Amino acid sequence: MKEQSIPKATAKRLPLYYRYLRFLADSGKTKVSSTELSEVVKVDSATIRRDFSYFGELGKRGYGYDVESLLNFFAKTLSEDRLTNVALIGVGNLGNALLKYGFHQSNNIRISAAFDIREDIVGRIVDGVPVYPLSDMKEQIKLQQIEIAILTVPSSVAQDNVNKLIDAGIKGIMNFTPIRINTPHDIQVQNVDLTNELQTLIYFLNHYGPKLEKQEAIDK
Ligand code: ATP
């Protein structure tokens, strides 16, 4: 399987496919066509077929795809077949919301450790997650084999925390702060700037009207 070399745009659609396939499997469906998938996930069927072609023989033309084998395959590809522990740095408003959120659309992602400097929460358990002082970061990240961290600290201390995380062995960072962080090339970063997303939406509404002809126009 050429898992490593799939385009990023394809990789981004995998969780979407996976979620719907799980729904299909739960409702007892065994086959699905790219057209059916297309209608629900709002990705055109040619793109779906192209995406799936990166994973080798997953179905035969005309017969549809086998739901179970797709599901097993995607579960492995998305590491949904094993538990992924994630660290959260900064238990403020956003951090708290993420702890509450629980990522319940995935069975196997869980925030297993949170870190903060606030004396009133360090040493406590918030929504089932222990909050550690920053001085325990390296030890806990190693102990819990955590490779991914969610960053919800103030911008002013973002880079400082990133440096600490990298030193502790973190490989991927979901950066909720509005600043662009500096990382070595082997660290994966996903920037999630909620204000920016909302401003983009407002811009699109004002400049293109309420509905664009194709969702891809926004995605590009
Ligand atoms: P949000 O930005 O999520 O709405 P907030 O406004 O409640 O949060 P912020 O000042 O943004 O609070 O801080 C977010 C969290 O980061 C707080 O819990 C704060 O204690 C924590 N924090 C502040 N400085 C650091 C630091 N150097 N390292 C780790 N956590 C920190």
Automatic annotation (TrEMBL):
Its main location: cytoplasm. GO terms for biological process: negative regulation of DNA-templated transcription; response to redox state. Belongs to the transcriptional regulatory Rex family. SUPFAM superfamilies: NAD(P)-binding Rossmann-fold domains, Winged helix' DNA-binding domain. Residues 79-180 form the CoA-binding domain. Pfam families: CoA_binding, Put_DNA-bind_N. This is Redox-sensing transcriptional repressor Rex. The lineage of its organism: Bacteria, Bacillati, Bacillota, Bacilli, Lactobacillales. It comes from Vagococcus entomophilus. NAD(+) binds at residues 90-95.
